[in-house]
Design brief:
Blueprint lengths: L31 H7 L5 H14 L24 H6 L10 E2 L6 E3 L9 E2 L2 H13 L12 E16 L2 E7 L2 E8 L5 E5 L8 E2 L10 H5 L5 H13 L8 H13 L6 H11 L6 E7 L5 E9 L4 E7 L6 E8 L13 E13 L11
Parallel strand pairs: 1-4
Antiparallel strand pairs: 2-5, 3-9, 4-5, 4-6, 4-13, 6-7, 7-8, 9-10, 10-11, 11-12, 12-13
């Protein structure tokens, strides 16, 4: 079952409203707290990539939702929250960076693509159509005790450094399977080459902030929703990160590996239409090679463009990618490099953790 698409909250400054997503402290792998505190904003995405790959080469053990999504969730010091991770660098964990260890997935040269033509005037019209498609209520409504299952294919390009030698490499395209309870306190992750065949538990006291119940509590008025996103992202983003880029990335984080109620999904797209600098793109390709149209925004600070890709006919969410569209003097990544690509292959409601769609309970 496919449905319309799919992260971090804040302290008590916002007493007038409930925070966008629940505030909670998160445990991190050993040594990561100080590591993140010491990094400059310009290298946030690189540090996050290192965090993801370090976890891939460490022994796999159950965790207290410290790193529930090796690809998507952003690692930050304790007290980080839903939007924080998505906006601190104006980038998601999916964006390429530098790492100094090896991985079995680093098998190829940089992923590259042709860059689609951006149209600022076309974005509001396209987002209105996408919003209408997302408002379709024919998808099943989850019930207490059920889980959200999402399967995807992902790959990344990044700078790998071993000793004094650096090279641009890519991961092979690999699969991800994620299960999350509606309250975000239980789940499972299996990611090829990163978690082992059996995967890792996502069970813990700290709920997953993109959980269905949290999303269902969001306002469905686009203006109110966008103001909340701005307010919370302003509280945590680095001052060098453009405010509008932070909001755009935050919305993307709420749309990807989640299952928002139809009215919330529609409101998020309408909110995105109100962000300056958002454009439509005539052609973009997801991780499995499906062509579609895209809603995108460029971060001029790093020269990367974040794209949400949709089927050209049905406007169903296909996936996302991040593309280098502007050469930077201090980066070895060339224009056309795809630092991250993903494709949602299945999105479903299931009756139990680790249950596959269509499988008996």
């Amino acid at each position: 079952m496919n449905a319309s698409p799919s992260h971090r909250p804040h302290p008590a400054e916002w007493t007038e409203t409930q925070s966008l997503l629940p505030s909670a402290e998160r445990d991190l792998p050993a040594g990561r707290h100080q590591f993140h505190k010491e990094q400059m904003m310009a290298r946030i995405h690189e540090d996050l990539r290192t965090a993801s790959r370090t976890s891939a080469t460490s022994p796999v053990a159950p965790v207290k939702r410290a790193n529930p999504f090796l690809r998507r969730t952003i690692l930050l010091p304790a007290a980080a929250f839903a939007l924080a991770g998505a906006v601190v660098g104006g980038l998601a964990l999916t964006d390429g960076g530098t790492q100094d260890d090896t991985t079995a997935l680093a098998t190829g040269p940089a992923l590259t693509t042709s860059i689609g033509v951006a149209d600022a005037k076309g974005a509001p019209r396209l987002l209105e159509r996408i919003s209408l498609a997302a408002a379709d209520t024919s998808a099943p409504t989850p019930h207490k005790g059920q889980y959200i299952y999402i399967a995807s294919k992902v790959a990344d390009t990044y700078v790998k450094t071993v000793g004094d030698k650096s090279e641009v490499v890519s991961d092979e395209l690999h699969s991800r399977q994620v299960w999350n309870s509606l309250d975000g306190r239980d789940g499972w992750l299996i990611e090829a080459g990163k978690t082992g065949d059996k995967g890792i538990t996502l069970k813990g006291d700290t709920p997953y902030t993109g959980a269905y119940n949290a999303l269902a509590a969001l306002p469905t008025d686009p203006d109110a929703l966008l103001q909340r996103i701005y307010r919370e992202s302003d509280a945590v983003r680095d001052p060098e990160v453009p405010r509008d880029q932070a909001a755009f990335v935050a919305i993307g984080g709420l749309l990807f590996e989640s299952y928002p109620p139809a009215e919330v999904g529609a409101a998020l797209y309408k909110a995105a239409a109100k962000i300056p600098g958002v454009v439509s793109v005539d052609d973009a390709v997801d991780a499995t090679g499906r062509h579609g149209v895209a809603i995108a925004r460029q971060n001029d600070t790093d020269g990367w463009r974040t794209e949400w890709i949709f089927d050209k006919k049905t406007l169903r969410f296909l996936g996302e990618r991040t593309v280098v569209v502007k050469a930077m003097a201090d980066s070895p990544l060339k224009v056309g490099t795809v630092t991250h690509t993903s494709a949602i292959t299945e999105r479903a409601v299931v009756d139990a953790n680790k249950q596959l769609p269509g499988q008996a309970s």
